[in-house]
Amino acid sequence: MPAGRSFKTRFYPFNQLGFSVKFSLIQFLLATLLISSTLWVIATLQHQQLIKQQQELNVSQGKVIVSRLQSFTNRIESQAISIANIVIHFGNDYQELINTIPIVLGEDKRDILIAGGGIWPEPNALTDGKDRDSLFWFRNNTGKLELSTAYNQSEDYDYHQAQWYRPSQFFPRNQAFWSESYQDPISHEKMLTAGVPIWQNHKLVGTATVDVSQPQLSNMLTDLSHYFHGYTMVLDQHNQILSISNNALINDHNVTFPSPLEQLGYIELNKSVSRADKQFIQENLTGQYQQQEVQQQLKQAIIHHSLSSPNASVKILATFRVKQDPQFGTEALVSVLQMPRTYWKVVIVSPLTALNNEATLITSKVGGYLIFAQLLTLIILFIVQHKLLIKPVNDMIEALDKNQLAPLEIMAKQRQDELGILSKTIISRSQQLQVAIDSLDANNLALTEQIEIHKQTQNQLKIHQEQLNAIMNSSPNYIYIKDIEGRYLIINNKYTQLLNREYQEIIGRKDCELFSLKNAKKYAETDELALKSTEAISFEETVPTMHGDIKLTVTKFAILDNNNQVDGIGAIAYPTPQSNLTDET
Question: Does pTM surpass 0.70?
Answer without folding.
Answer: no
